[in-house]
Structures are given as C-alpha cells and as structure tokens.
Amino acid sequence: MRPVGNEPLSRHALAFVLAGGRGSRLQELTDKRAKPAVYFGGKSRIIDFALSNAVNSGIRRIAVATQYKAHSLIRHLQGGWNFFRPERNESFDILPASQRVSETMWYVGTADAVYQNIDILEAHGTKYILVLAGDHVYKMDYEIMLKQHVESGADVTVGCLEMPRAESSAFGIMHIDEHGLIQSFLEKPADPPPMPGKPDKSLASMGIYVFNSEFLFDELRRDAADPNSAHDFGKDIIPYIVKHGRAIAHQFNDSCVRSGDDPRSYWRDAGTVDAYWGANIDLTDVVPELDLYDRSWPIWTYAEITPPAKFVHDEDGRRGQAVTSLVSGACIISGASLRRSLLFTGVHVNSYANVENAVIMPYVNVGRGARLRNVVIDRGVRIPEGLVVGEDPEFDGKRFRTTENGITLITQSMIDRLGT
Length: 420
Hints:
Residues 307-410 form the Glucose-1-phosphate adenylyltransferase/Bifunctional protein GlmU-like C-terminal hexapeptide domain. The chain has two domains: 9-284, Alpha-Beta Complex (Spore Coat Polysaccharide Biosynthesis Protein SpsA, Chain A), CATH 3.90.550.10; 310-418, UDP N-Acetylglucosamine Acyltransferase, domain 1, CATH 2.160.10. The protein is 21% helix and 28% strand. By secondary structure, it is an alpha/beta fold. The chain has helices at residues 47-56, 71-80, 110-115, 118-124, 142-152, 213-224, 233-244, 273-281, 393-399, 412-417; strands spanning 13-18, 39-40, 44-45, 61-66, 91-96, 128-133, 137-138, 156-164, 172-176, 182-187, 201-212, 247-251, 267-268, 310-312, 314-315, 318-319, 321-323, 326-327, 332-334, 337-339, 342-343, 348-349, 354-360, 365-366, 371-377, 382-383, 388-389, 401-402, 408-410. The radius of gyration is 23 Å and the shape is globular. The strands form seven sheets. Strands 17, 18, 20, 21, 23, 25, 27, 28 and 29 form a nine-stranded mixed sheet that branches. Strands 5-4-1-6-11-8-12 form a seven-stranded mixed sheet. It has ten helices and 29 strands.
C-alpha cells in the first residue's frame, strides 16, 4: 500500500549504494582507490552524485557497501556525509565486506552485497529499497521513480536510458513493450540488441532498481540458495523477475534533473580514462551539460577548508592566468598559463609552465617550464621542471599510460621511473 496522504514516498525508502567495484578500465587511477572514490569536478568524488541525488530526493536513510581498497572512500564518507541524525529518523551506514555470512565469503556479487546485510536493512523497517550504482555521474529525482514503481504495481522498477549501441556492451540491455514492461534483459551482451526503430541505439540499465523491501528480501534469499547463481542483480535477480514477475522500465528522461530550460539530460559512466577526462573537461564549457552551480540540486561532498585560489606574477612570459578553466581552492598559479583545464584543490603550477586540456587532481605540483597537454594527473604527483607531455604521442607512450584518443595518464610511480 502507498503511504497515506501526500507524504513523499522517499520518507519510506532506503537507498543502498553499491560502491565496492574497482573500475579497472580507469587503469592506474583505481590502483589506490575504488572507482566511486575517484575525484570528479574539482571538489567531489564520483559517489557524491548518487548520494546527493538521494538526499535531494528526500531519502534520509542510506547505506553504502564498500569492498575494493575502501579506505579512501570510507574516509571521504566519514568526513563529508556525517550530518545524518538518528533522532530525526535518519541514518548513514557504511557496510564494508566483513564476511558476515561466511568466514570464506566477501561480497561475491551486487545482489550478495545486499543479501549479506539483510538483517541491518530489515531493522530500518523501510517500505522501499532503492539500489544504486555508486560510480555514475548524473542528477536524478528518485521520488519520481518511486512514484512510478508504486503506481505501476511493479515487482522491480529499473532505471534505463537510451545509449549508442556501440557503447552499450558494458551495461544491461533491455527490451520493453509499449507499457514499459520489460520483455527481456541481457547483462553486458557482446553484441547489444538495438531498440525497435532505432538501429544505432540500445536501451541500457542505469544500475538503479526500486523494490518493495519484503519482495527484495525474499528474492535475495531465493537467489542465495541457488548454487548456480552469480548473485548479481544484472545477471540473476533482474532476469529472473523479468521471466517470473513484473519488471517495469523507468526512463531517465522522466526524472532527470535539468538546469533551467536546458532540454539535455546528462548521464556519464566516466569509466575509462578517455571518458573521465572528457566528462571533467566538459565542465569548462561556457554552458556545460552538467550544472555544478545549481543551488536547487547541489552536489554535496566533503568541503575541505582552504584559502582562495591565487594567481601571481604579471610580466610578459610569466603571467599567472587561466582561460576557460575551473580552479579550486588553495591552488596557486604562479607565473603559469592554463587553458581549458580543471584543477582540484591545492594544485601549484610554477612559473613558465603551460597547461592545456588537463585534469589535475589534488595537491599536484607542476614544475617550472613544464608543458602539459591532454593529460590526467593523479593526486600528489610532482611534475619535474621542463617535462613535456602531449606533443609526441609515441614518446609519451613509452613513459606514461596513453589512450587511443591521445590522453596521457600520469602517476607518481610513472614519474619516479623516469629517473631509472
């Protein structure tokens, strides 16, 4: 039954965020941290988008399951997401894999990550559970999806969006009828089937699911008892409900949070170095598709206390300046030039350096006279004086990680090897 009156459904929902994956396609960026903990947009981490969507939608009970190299992620959650108050019927649970079912089992799949915490979820007594992927960048009002779930009488409601077929093989692909009922669901097919009438598009799962809590618990227990299951939502739980129950698709366009009159709906996986670089660099556009300045739907995060950014020196050839760039607090641009770049907190770019099309993570030091173009630089890297990257792709590939699209990833270990 739906809650009485006009009370928001979000008050009766818990958001369970799956944040245990490495994200190996991001290469060395996830050597020390899980993909949801990767920095994004100058101040945030990728997981902040799913968490902010939940809070902005009115959901005040949240659980985050962590597993792979979770220390960075857990520290971020403890610092930036510690404002929930139990006396207001709010909660924020961090649930590391802790062999709660068996001494030999960590989380073996996305469904198992929820199953191993059923007792904690049952204690919350919420009517609905919203399962979220913690590694995508988007703005979405989950209250709209919850309403569709209740009004359609679905066993599960699956968030979905149209995606270029060539980019769809890493996602669950579904076919729906004219009423939104999911007819088939294929997890990460090598050859994604096209949408009817749209041969270049596939309908992809966003990794967002809404369940009635008791129904979900029953399905998880059934799945846990199946020795042939991978205990994964996309591989097992959703296909089973498609065959034996009522699975409904929710179109992202219906609940996407847009800025003003902008008709575009923004969603990014940012799961490769190229995609990660592109999603960050896009923020330097005059009117970017993702509006980080929208105070009506803010992206909450850990707000580090820092001094303002500083630009110093004003002489020919040694002028601290930035064009079409985002520069975070505590950055010092000392007689250097930036163009179309995004700098995270505490970056120091020294005199005579030129930086273009760069995504630079916190506390990087760029040495004098360095020339950097089309790069992603990991946290804390110290770029040597005079280093040149982005002008000779073949040479860059021998020293650093380079992509097919010409983006160069630089870590401190790569820098250290230059001197050997």
